[in-house]
Amino acid sequence: MQELTHYINGQHVKGTSGRFADVFNPATGEVQAKCPLASVEEMDAAVAAAQAAQPAWAATNPQRRARVMMEFVRLLNRDMDKLAEALSREHGKTFPDAKGDIQRGLEVVEYCIGAPQMLKGEFTDGAGPGIDIYSMRQPLGVTAGITPFNFPAMIPMWMFAPALACGNAFILKPSERDPSVPLMLAELMEEAGLPKGILQVVNGDKVAVDAILDHEVIQSIGFVGSTPIAQYIYGRGCSNGKRVQCFGGAKNHMIIMPDADMDQAADALVGAGYGAAGERCMAISVAVPVGDETADRLIEKLVPRIEKLKVGPYTAGNDVDYGPVVTAEAKARILGLVETGIAQGAKLVVDGRDFKLQGYEDGFFVGPHLFDHVTPDMDIYTQEIFGPVLSTVRAGSYEEALKLAMDHEYGNGTAIFTRDGDAARDFAARINIGMVGINVPIPVPLAYHTFGGWKKSGFGDLNQHGPDSFKFYTRTKTVTARWPSGIKEGGEFNFKPMD
Ligand code: NAD
């Protein structure tokens, strides 16, 4: 059995707590590795190494730091297949989807190559006689991030790329379900020229997370995961005086207007609902056709597409549409919610409950499910299922559809499918959700824009990547300087306006 490590101060180190988590191959159900769960002392060792290394990294000019990012991009491309294989093996997502996970992170690293431009401060020449005012963006020091299982490459890179480009040290606590790719990324960053101790990976569970939350040296925390944990980390981190941004769960609605191209909408829904087995925070989990006739046409188009979906292991390459879910518990929870949906009166139009894959009977595969006639009081509507289950809620009008999405507690992503520009504009303007697609089912913004949900999907005031990330990972210092007359003529005792 492979025993995974932490990556502390440039070295793979074995866990010393005696506690481990099982890392599965979700396609076979086998335990393939043990992930060490850090103690407080192990976290302390990483923080000490980060604290010692960070000042020299911060003093390295931003262009040189950017060159490390540039080289890292080359290495990611060099090792793309190797990384994607490790990712699929632990997560279960298809091989092309694993490459997409790495690629979307890589694009954030590319954006961070622009750090010298992003870190330029502000300058006012001659704010008063002989007086200049300038603002600098300085790194925070030691920063940390806690990431979920579903994007083990992209989400760590969302965080550590801007943190490092800004001159911080970063401690990553990845998901204990798929920690191998984060460890590989840390190694690659050092191969790219990053000094030891600047990017470290400390594997663990709540013990490691709480050690981050309470460590007085750690200045900021980024979190992505489920909403209850996001809320916990935000509360405790903020009350400890840290800068915290937390992104949580989702229930993304797609509104289908009567004038939508129904084939296009159905194709989009199948990809966005079932891709990655529905384990994406930007997956569409609720279809909202406007009007019964639209709903009937949509269901008619959806059913054959869903029945044709190919579910299988990542080793089948391009021949599968989605793979297994991450654990047996995740599978049991999803199937439990399906039963609840039936019991509460929703109509199961496509039933994936009996799905079996020959040769992979112990894998965590879940067949695709489609519900119709779901109502807002049902558990399958209120809860994030995070599996290949799409719920259809029929709305009587556009206003009703809009209100439905607005009243849901989550506000990560949403989409509208229509040919009517006026409806699309109105929707984009009024909806209280962070990321909106117009005839685009998964509107994940590219690296140079920012990513973030509203309501219970996001806590904190700055988004991930894009310009916000350079704000999140720096502090502004503003200097007022007077040259050359100085104060040699004597002190001034009144607070004077600038002349
Ligand atoms: P999770 O909340 O179970 O775990 C996320 C991280 O928190 C992991 O590193 C885990 O070790 C840690 N953690 C778990 N329980 C903890 C506890 N009690 N105390 C402290 N730390 C704890 O989430 P997950 O299952 O890994 O990921 C799926 C969730 O993430 C879904 O809800 C999904 O919507 C969400 N997600 C959100 C976004 C977004 O940008 N909004 C992106 C991806 C995933």
State the main characteristics:
7-stranded mixed beta sheet, single chain, 2 domains, alpha/beta, Aldehyde Dehydrogenase, Chain A, domain 2, 499 residues
Written description of the protein model:
It holds the Pfam family Aldedh. Keywords: NAD, Oxidoreductase. Its EC number is 1.2.1.27. This is methylmalonate-semialdehyde dehydrogenase (CoA acylating). The protein has 16 helices and 23 strands. With 499 residues, the chain is α/β, with parallel strands linked by helices. The chain has two domains: 2-248 and 457-481, Aldehyde Dehydrogenase, Chain A, domain 1; 252-438, Aldehyde Dehydrogenase, Chain A, domain 2. The strands form six sheets. It has a seven-stranded mixed sheet with strand order 15-16-17-14-13-19-20, with helices on both faces. The chain is globular and about 85 Å long. It starts with a strand and ends in a 17-residue tail after the last strand. It binds nicotinamide-adenine-dinucleotide. Nicotinamide-adenine-dinucleotide (NAD) binds at residues 146-151, 173, 175-176, 205-206, 209, 224-226, 229, 247-250, 281, 384, 386, 412, 453, 457.
